[in-house]
Specification:
heterodimer; A: mainly alpha; two-stranded antiparallel sheet; 15 helices; B: mainly alpha; Rna Polymerase Sigma Factor, Chain: A; globular; disordered N terminus
């Protein structure tokens, strides 16, 4: 094996793509040829440098991608579902809500468990033809979803071949209305707390954040940004608080997020919001973050903010 | 010294169902099976898109478009190849389109110059080990910038072959199958890609 051949084969050798005989011949050549051995070493260094470059998508990004996919599939097929006759279950979109557990019940405007929790408000909303509180909202009866609980022969009926089928049925309604409708907002505020369904929480926060001038919605955003277990929801809540980063109460919460949130993406967004305004009260928080933060972007933003405030980066 | 690349793709399927049974279940309209199928591959698909495109927004679009195509055309899957190969044909075609469009538009690279040195925007969401050495960090950023420059100098096809071999750990024969070419052509692509990068990066440590 000569140097020209070896040069061409080194990448394949490195990636384990050579037949055993060629690999042996190449290794013999490397033992005897310093120039080709340097080339092999160069390939190893290149590979090591490229290994360090690899990006692992964050859990939040993956969660958002799954959510977007669900939404796209739902939009694409929802018209087909509407054409399904009532009580005809079994179309696979009937169960879409279940097929990604974290986004279960996505295709309903609000999560089922949220509906149960609503009690009085929901009862008023879902009264067909009702007037008063829901004058801007319309109610559209929808399908009934059935699942078979049990099937058994009926032996004592006297009629051979008779069977008994027990169905569990859930009656579904679609509630629609304007986001600024107080009743719609109440439904969505409840949905934004639906512990069983991150997809419903994410979409509820995403829609409500455009109405953050309402104190109830701002309270929700402040709560979700700290309490929600899903980083995608926390990021959306942070988005909604951007207009209030000069509010002392909001800044206190942002500081807690910056200090304690486990997700670097959330901390990045928190530091961007927090450092948008110069604030001497934040010096201690910023110094603390510089000391303990793992993410280089967050550290740099805090250090820069401290410099702008003429404060020392470290604590002494 | 010969070694396999890290991060070899492995579908993470529940032991309850083998893949062929899962796919047949999806074709019959089983939503749980579709969920399992998506979840078996979606992390590696997203990682491929993020690494190739160095843009979270583009990666999200690729993810969605790829699995929507799977959703729409799973009935047409006839087991002529593995599902992994079929899925990766879809994903790599979409990614190659993005890379080609980007070549034409000469989009802004992922690594941008800042007053504090080159900064890879896609690193913003990564957890990093705490580095106390700013000089080392600066050096790493400069190396990262040079690597991005070297990768940007590859053709979309070279870039794809390199990505699939180095980061996804696929064998060249499988890569050829995915890209609709021969193993030999994939080998040549990999050779050209490494040659170009070594020439571009020179004597880094």
């Amino acid at each position: 094996m000569n140097c020209e051949t070896v040069t061409k084969l080194i990448p394949l050798y490195f990636y384990g793509e050579l037949p055993p005989d060629d690999e042996d011949a190449l290794e013999q050549h490397l033992d005897a040829c310093a120039a080709c051995a340097r080339l092999a070493e160069s390939q190893r260094k290149l590979s090591a440098a490229l290994d360090r470059r690899e990006s692992q998508p964050s859990a939040a990004l993956l969660a958002e991608c799954r959510h977007d996919l669900m939404r796209a599939i739902y939009r694409e097929e929802s018209s087909a579902v509407r054409r399904v006759e009532p009580r005809r279950s079994g179309h696979w979109l009937e169960g879409l809500g279940a097929w990604m557990p974290s986004f279960g019940a996505w295709r309903m405007p609000v999560g089922a468990s949220a509906m149960l929790a609503l009690g009085f408000a929901a009862a008023r909303l879902t009264t067909p033809g009702g007037s008063g509180p829901l004058s801007t909202a319309s109610l559209i009866p929808d399908n009934t979803i059935s699942s078979v609980r049990s099937v058994q022969p009926v032996s004592d009926s006297g009629r051979p071949g008779e069977v008994q089928i027990v169905l569990d049925e859930t009656h579904r309604r679609v509630v629609s209305g304007q986001l600024n409708d107080a009743n719609i907002q109440r439904l969505m505020l409840a949905a934004a707390h639906d512990e069983s369904n991150a997809g419903v929480r994410w979409e509820s926060v995403n829609l409500l954040k455009s109405h953050s001038d309402s104190s109830a919605i701002r309270e929700l955003l402040l709560n979700r940004v700290v309490e929600d277990p899903n980083p995608g929801v926390r990021l959306k809540a942070l988005d909604g608080l951007k207009a209030y980063t000069d509010d002392p109460e909001v800044r206190k919460v942002l500081a807690q997020v910056l200090l304690h949130d486990a997700n670097p993406g959330v901390r990045i967004q928190a530091v961007d919001s927090l450092t948008a305004h110069a604030d001497d009260n934040m010096v201690g928080v910023l110094q603390s973050v510089v000391q303990k933060e793992n993410n280089s972007y967050v550290r740099r933003r805090c250090a820069k903010a401290l410099q702008d405030l003429n404060a020392s980066v470290g604590t002494f | 010294m010969a070694q396999d690349a890290p991060g070899a793709v492995g579908a993470r399927l529940s032991p309850k169902l083998d893949e062929a049974s899962l796919i047949r279940a999806v074709q019959r309209g089983d939503q749980d099976a579709f969920e399992q199928l998506v979840r078996a591959y979606d992390q590696s698909v997203l990682r491929l898109a993020v690494n190739l495109l160095r843009s979270q927004e583009d990666a999200r679009d690729v993810f969605q478009e790829a699995f929507l195509r799977v959703f729409r055309s799973i009935d047409a899957f006839r087991f002529d190849c593995s599902f992994h190969t079929w899925l990766y044909r879809i994903v790599t075609n979409i990614c190659l389109d993005y890379l080609r469009k980007r070549k034409v538009r000469k989009e802004e690279p992922a690594v941008v110059d800042t007053p504090e040195g080159p900064l890879d925007r896609t690193n913003d969401f990564e957890e990093e080990a705490a580095h106390a050495d700013p000089e080392r960090n600066m050096w790493n950023r400069q190396l990262s910038s040079r690597i991005e420059g070297a990768l940007a100098g590859l053709t979309p096809r070279e870039r794809m072959v390199f990505e699939l071999r180095h980061y996804q750990g696929l064998r060249l024969r499988n890569i050829g199958e995915i890209l609709g070419t021969s193993e030999e052509a994939a080998k040549n692509c990999l050779f050209r890609a490494t040659q170009k990068m070594r020439a571009e990066l020179g004597d880094f440590q």
